[in-house]
Structure formats: structure tokens, C-alpha cells
């Protein structure tokens, strides 16, 4: 039985490494055309080298800042120019804060975290739905079982829990959940679906890059003390499982029923 991702065009943001690359790998293995963006040129080059061996002609990479509206539109345009259309968007690009509470959070950190984690999904969803609607207008008689487009946003425990990180990350991921539900409510009747995966801690992603510059240890220790400690290999969410879930949600038989869902996928950490 052929994969439902076969021949679809998928954009995954922040996908030259970590979770994003695992998601991109899953779609490529399922036969999709995959477009990734990232801000790290070294990671992009490494992904290109790896994929050229197995998926030549099936992928496109672009160095893109998702908080830049012009750059986001160029990403969408490049995907359509190469593969003819867009079917799925996975908003994975994200950065962590340093666990600063509001009184200690610098304006620079606030702007950077919300710029990538919340403005980024807003800009990519905005550009994607515009493209989805354009495609629908050009095909007034959709094929049986076809859908207009799917957007999967990567949220977090912080989307629904107020004390798992610093203020900037918490607000950004809560906003992602609101963006998901509002978008699903308006575009669902048009056959364009939006959902989110609210993830727990994950080992082997790039989100911890933010910690290289230090942590607000007082806040970090208070957060750690308020719940079951995070233990890689025991409480972490499997990256490969998240990738499979994104593929599952993009299935045209699943997406309509999942529309608006903000699915907690965190290995029950912290315990519900």
C-alpha cells in the first residue's frame, strides 16, 4: 500500500538537525518532496550531503530566518517553484530561553524567543494558507480524498503549563496553541487543517543550544523542584516517535478529525 505522503510537498522549518531533521527524514522515507529551512549553514550543508546520496531531486534546502516575513515568503515560493505545490507545513523551528522570569528577562531575549517561536509560525502559517487557497482556486473540482493543506505546529508542555521554563518560552508556546486553534476554526471548513503536538523534554534536539550562554539558576532550580525531574532515557519523548506522529497527522483520512487538536505527547512528564 502506497504511503499517503507519496508525492506531496512538505516544508519543515528548523530542520537541518535535531527533531526537525528527524521529521524531514520521515517524510522523505515516505516518498514526499521535502523542503527544509534552517539558520545554521553548517547543518544545512551536512543534511544536503547526506540526502543527496538517497534522495537526490526530492529535497530543497534554504537558509531562512522564520521571523523574517520576506524570507518566509521566499521559502514558500521556492518550494512551489521546485515541486509545483505545497501540501504540508511543519512548524518546528524554535529556541529555548534561559529560564529567566519576567523581572530578569531581557527585552532582547523576549524579542528573539517570541520572534522565532511565535512570530515564525504566524508568518509561515499565513504564507502557507495563502498558497493552499491559491491551489484550491486553481482546482475547483478537488479529487476524492484530497484536502487543501495541513499545518502541524510543534508546541510544548509550556503551551499549557505555566511553570516549566522561563517567561519568554512559556508565552511563545502558549501562543502557538492559540494560533493553532484559531487557524483550525477558520480554515477547517475550507479543507485546510491545523493541529499541534505539545511535546515534553527531548534528548538529541538542538533546542538546548540556548543554554550555552548560561541559565537563570534560581528559576531553573524552582522549576525542577516543582515536578518530577527530567531524566534522559526515562522521561524524554522519543524524537523518532514525534516524526511518525507528524506523518500520521498529515494523512488525509486523519487531518480533518485532528483539526484543532493540541495533542499532549510528552511521555506523561511531568505526570498529568
Distance between the termini: 37 Å
Helical stretch count? 8
Provide the residue-averaged pLDDT. Answer: 93
Kindly give the count of domains.
Answer: 1
One letter per element, helices H and strands E, the order comes to EHEHEHEHEHEHHHE
Report helical residue fraction: 40-55%
User: What low-confidence regions span 5 or more consecutive residues with pLDDT below 50?
Assistant: none
Quick one: how many beta strands?
7
**Biggest sheet character:** 7 strands, parallel
Predict the CATH topology.
Rossmann fold
Instruction: Write down the Rg.
Output: 18 Å
CATH class: Alpha Beta
Q: Structural class, please?
A: alpha/beta
What's the architecture in CATH terms?
3-Layer(aba) Sandwich
CATH homologous superfamily designation? NAD(P)-binding Rossmann-like Domain
Percent of residues in beta strands? Answer: 5-15%
How is the largest sheet built, in terms of strand order?
3-2-1-4-5-6-7
The general outline is: globular
Short précis:
This protein is an alpha/beta fold and 272 residues long.
Give me the secondary-structure topology.
Layout: E1 9-13, H1 18-29, E2 33-38, H2 41-55, E3 59-63, H3 69-83, E4 88-91, H4 107-138, E5 149-156, H5 167-187, E6 192-199, H6 217-225, H7 239-249, H8 255-258, E7 262-265
Parallel strand pairs: 1-2, 1-4, 2-3, 4-5, 5-6, 6-7
Amino acid at each position: 500500500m502506497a504511503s499517503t505522503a507519496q508525492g506531496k510537498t512538505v516544508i519543515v522549518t528548523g530542520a537541518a538537525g535535531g527533531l526537525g531533521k528527524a521529521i524531514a527524514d520521515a517524510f522523505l522515507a515516505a516518498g514526499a518532496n521535502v523542503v527544509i529551512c534552517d539558520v545554521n549553514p553548517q547543518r544545512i550543508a551536512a543534511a544536503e550531503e547526506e540526502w543527496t546520496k538517497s534522495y537526490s531531486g526530492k529535497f530543497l534546502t534554504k537558509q531562512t530566518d522564520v521571523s523574517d516575513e520576506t524570507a518566509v515568503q521566499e521559502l514558500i515560493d521556492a518550494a512551489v517553484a521546485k515541486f509545483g505545490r505545497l501540501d504540508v507545513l511543519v512548524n518546528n523551528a524554535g529556541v529555548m530561553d534561559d529560564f529567566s522570569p519576567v523581572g530578569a528577562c531581557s527585552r532582547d531575549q523576549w524579542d528573539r524567543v517570541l520572534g522565532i517561536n511565535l512570530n515564525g509560525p504566524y508568518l509561515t502559517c499565513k504564507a502557507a494558507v495563502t498558497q493552499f487557497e491559491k491551489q484550491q482556486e486553481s482546482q475547483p473540482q478537488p479529487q476524492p480524498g484530497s484536502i487543501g493543506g495541513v499545518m502541524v505546529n510543534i508546541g510544548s508542555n509550556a503551551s499549557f503549563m505555566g511553570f516549566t521554563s522561563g517567561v519568554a518560552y512559556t508565552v511563545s508556546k502558549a501562543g502557538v496553541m492559540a494560533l493553532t486553534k484559531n487557524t483550525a476554526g477558520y480554515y477547517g471548513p475550507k479543507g485546510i487543517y491545523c493541529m499541534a503536538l505539545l511535546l515534553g523534554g527531548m534528548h538529541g534536539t538542538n533546542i538546548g543550544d540556548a543554554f550555552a550562554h548560561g541559565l537563570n539558576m534560581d528559576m531553573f532550580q524552582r522549576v525542577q523542584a516543582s515536578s518530577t525531574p527530567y531524566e534522559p532515557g526515562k522521561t524524554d519523548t522519543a524524537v523518532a516517535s514525534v516524526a511518525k506522529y507528524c506523518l500520521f497527522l498529515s494523512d488525509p483520512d486523519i487531518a480533518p478529525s485532528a483539526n484543532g487538536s493540541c495533542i499532549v505527547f510528552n511521555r506523561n512528564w511531568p505526570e498529568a
